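Priority: low. Protein: Heterokaryon incompatibility domain-containing protein. Input follows.
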Amino acid sequence: MERWEDDDSKKSLAQISRHHARSIVPALVEIGQRTASQASFTPFLEHLECLLLPKSPDRQTQATVQLRRSEIDITRSNTEFIALSYTWAASPGEEEASGRYRIEDRKKLGPPIKSKTRDCVFGRVIKYGHSFGVKLLWIDRHCITQDDERECKETKCPHASCVHHRSGMQVMDLVYKYSSHPVALLGRPIESESDIRCLGKLIQGRMNRLKEISVEELWHVLNMLSNIIHDAWWQRAWTFQENFLAGKEMYLLISHPHNLERLKRSYCPSVFGQVDGELRISSTAFSIQVTRFCQALPPRLSPRISAQEKDNMDQIIKCLTDTAGRYSILLKTSDSMTPIIVGNVENRGVTDCWDRLPIVANCSRYKTRLDEEQLKKIGHSLSLSMLAMCLLNGEVPDNAKRRNWGDMTVLESLKSAFLNIRGPSVHQNLSFNRGCRLTRVALRREGIHTKGHLWKLGRIIDNQSMAWVEDAAGCLELDERQRLVWLADTVRSYDDYPLSDEISKFLGRDAWIRQQGSRHQPTFTNSYQKLMSQELAEAIAQGKKLRLGRIYDPLVEWASSPYMAVFIWDPQTQPDGDDEMDIDSPDTTIFSYRVGSESPEFVFTSFKEDEGHIVNDASTKDLDRHVSFEVEMENGAGHEAVPKLRIKRWISGLCFFRKRRLVDVIFPWPTDLVEI
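Result:
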């Protein structure tokens, strides 16, 4: 067998299959059996190790400084602590000396241990802590058991040090998410007045007025930003994770010489902060302004520079947006964030490539984790492990079209062979897309097993008239309430009283929520139903047809179930059934569809509002998950077998399913994936 490195991320699925001498689907199923829930690692958070910062700021003397350990429970307290993001290796030009700081022995049995962390790292973070009155520091090198401290490296061993190491890797997302002061230390300093002035303009949003800025200054800003993002901190996968998870709370620290202190403090504190010797910059603000600058720059510079300079500019802009770009600006509302996250992690450095699994899981808020140590020991593919982890956490592959899976790497398959959600036209965003995941997933030979509600579609409603609503009180707009009242009345006119009553109850709850104001925090269920009701109202306004659905349960006669859902039924979005489809085409559905077909039509929905695992919100809270697909039932509408479903498209609708049993369904594997 050809010897590969562990990192097979650049190999196609067909190459991986040949190398391991086995088909892809059985390998995914086997990998999917080696899982654990993130909730099992939460004791790490209940006994989070931190270091106590010295009572006085570090004065850069040569005296040894001892840092004692302290435990806090972030699941039940709001204790403030700094979560430090930094690189273990120094950036070019950064001081590399270490050994001045001594860390208390974890078991408190031996003398303090000389830290290998650079002295300048401790010096800067101690100064930062004193600026904000924070006494505790969480730093991965000393607050997670490292490989050289473990008693062994066997998988799932009971040693306390090994359990501590595994747990820390799997819940690091929550450490940064719930830190009161996540902060990143960049190694490259800002050393000139011109750089500070340009950076100040950028953070304040003034660099977007490009007509007021000379070409020379624009090039200066571009090169300064390029220098910043070539700091080692931007190049590592773990620090990408830390920045991503801390979100709006993360600040970047960039050091500067003492002679620039007065200039820095001349700016509003929200721009650069007031920490001696440091520029304190919001990571979110930096990302947003860099992205906007990069988008605005080409039209301004391109007509005035040479072809070679334009190529240079394009390369720098690509590097900036790839490294520090803002997803909410760069991505379309129908894009999935998963391939972007996986790609960013794969493109950054890690000491052990298998660390990518917990990093992607943390960034994606995956609750089902894989035992990477065991998978690595057995000899499984890292790429297939990544794919299996995505599937286990509900990511939805397109199982109705041929996509040439064998020719693609796992990252390429995530980009082109998984569903892009073209969901609600009202307020659709990346957060909505991120929650479009299946629930209760298991990987089986026949396909992806999950649970949800299956709706058999029936009556079509064509809207023509509108109702008048005198009482406009509610979160919905007046015209939206008018259209939903019309819908409830229309449904009632067909003697479909249960669905009409549910729509009326929903409008009553909407009015009550509005009356409560800030006293009532809407749940995800409330928010989702409001979004779908707005979508329905918009569809009615556009003259689109609606279609009613009743619960379909293979174990219960469907005709006994009343209509309890209404979906937007837009014929323009249906596949064209006039011509027979060529199933050998790489981009066509593998089932036949004809408008007006007498075969039953179905919608599958799945909804899960997760309450989290532990109290105080410092929990393994899952994303609120939701899917709504029109599907083709592959094995017919019988009452014996588990329904096998092929996905046609996303379909929006308002469903009422309280006390309705979840049914088991299987989404068969994509045909050409089975063939690898």
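DSSP finds 24 helices and 21 strands in the chain. Residues 497-516 form the longest helix (20 residues).
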